[in-house]
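SEVERITY: medium
COMPONENT: batch folding queue
REPORTER: lab tech (J.R.)

DESCRIPTION
The queue accepted two submissions in a row. Attaching both inputs and their returned structure tokens so the on-call engineer can compare them side by side.

ATTACHMENT 1
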Amino acid sequence: MQRRQFLATTISLGAAPLLAQTGATNTNPAPKAEPGPVWHDPKTWGVEGRICGDAVRERWYDRLPADAKPKVTEPVWSLSRHSAGMAVRFRTNSPVIHVRYKLLLDTLAMPHMPATGASGVDLYAKAPDGKWRWVAVNKPASKDISTVMIRGISEEEREWMMYLPLFNCVDSLEIGVKEGSTFQGLAPRTEKQAIFYGTSITHGACASRPGMTHVAILGRRLDIPTVNLGFSGNGKMDAAVGDFLVQTDPAVFVIDCLPNMSPADITARTIPLVKQLRAKHPATPILLVENRRHTQSWIDSSLQTLNTAKQAAMKAEFDKLKSEGIGNLHYLHGDALLGDDSDGATDGSHPNDLGFFRQANAFEPVLRKILKL
């Protein structure tokens, strides 16, 4: 064994001088460096998913205008700075799409929600058949991100849409394309928006990607701009939020706050909020969404009782409003929102991607009827 090891060492050591004596050199030229991307800032053409679009904001990617800060609760204000539901649209023939952006929050993920959904950007392209198709999502590992979303695609002009993070605050963002490529930032559409006011479920917990919330799915399916006013744990039919809802002129108000409210809250706040909206918008459709059932409520009787009580409270207020002659008021039952097999939620409460897909399926026919699509 010792002799075999010695011979092996000798051969290994002897090889170096032999190679050195050949005088071999690498004559291949160094690869030419690829030119850096040309960067474009959406602030120059606009982003979809905000209300009061021309209002002054503390930060450009805030969902609510600056004057909301002293009027809404502190949690609502803080959560309104998340970029949930915002989307940047553009056209380019670039074979590569870059993105660089800066986040404000250190927390990139949550125990029940991945960083791709909470802090990632989600890229879609319009296919030849006119439908939006998913392309890529990044995997953020820091607050300062610069990455290639996709490369090597054919150089034909396409329409693109990039959804912004659901549970983080965007400080700055730029989209990069290959030098010499065409690029056109697409201004927010002028069609009336569908405004969704709700809880963490509307906000986007626990979608794996920003484009997988039911609000985003419905926006693509119905081809309408949407606004996500989900405030995690704080969607409570607040009159202060209503004050900003009435400053808009939407295609429909979708009120989906029951998961954050007790039956008593529902009884106290539903009629005042609807009448607040009706005072400024006498004909705009309003859709009241019933409480979804927790996916483990089939075995947890306390949850079953709570869900039933919330649904009954909402239905009673809806019936009162209808009896008072409040028109263009609509109702979505909650039992089927997450399906009936207990697989539609991450933690029993917040939808997973399957649950969001099912919610979109439940909302779609109702909204199509309301909006005559």
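ATTACHMENT 2
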Amino acid sequence: KLDGPLDLRMNPNKGRSAACLIETLDEAGLARILAGNADEPHAALLAKAIIAARAKTSIQTTKALTQILERALSTPSMRGKEDEIEGSIRRAYQALRVAVNEEFSNLERFLTILPSCLKPGGRVVILSFHSGEDRRVKKFFQAGLREGHYSRIAEAVVRPSAEEVRSNPRCSSAKLRWAVAG
């Protein structure tokens, strides 16, 4: 929301920033990150716009990237769809954050060792906030059930109630899954 360095790392002393990532990826790689890490429907369009802008100048701030994304999404077909444009911009930042922090690979490492951390009958609850995380949790729990690591898993995802969302709008995307160690 405020202008600042295009970093997005949880630990600014580790790994490379989002600005560095953008500078080194090709268009196809950037589109894969936008689509794969955030299910962004306009991934190809946004990747093309970022690469075109990068050819002219280095993209080092959040304001610069936001302006590029807004221009790319300002097409006749998107007129009057400010919420959709805002959503695409949010998803683009999410996808870059997930990439620079290696969030999915860290989650998968955690899910791989999780069964060994639980005693028989031990319970684990995982709260995810977007579909990429939830898909991974669901698949790992299902595989763990088949392999005997878990005796039971949630059959369906638990979502916040309408009342919970009214009192805390940020929870609207939350998905809860649980498992019981075998």
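NOTES FROM REPORTER
Helices lie at 18-24, 27-38, 43-56, 62-73, 82-100, 103-117, 131-146, 162-167.
No errors were logged for either attachment.
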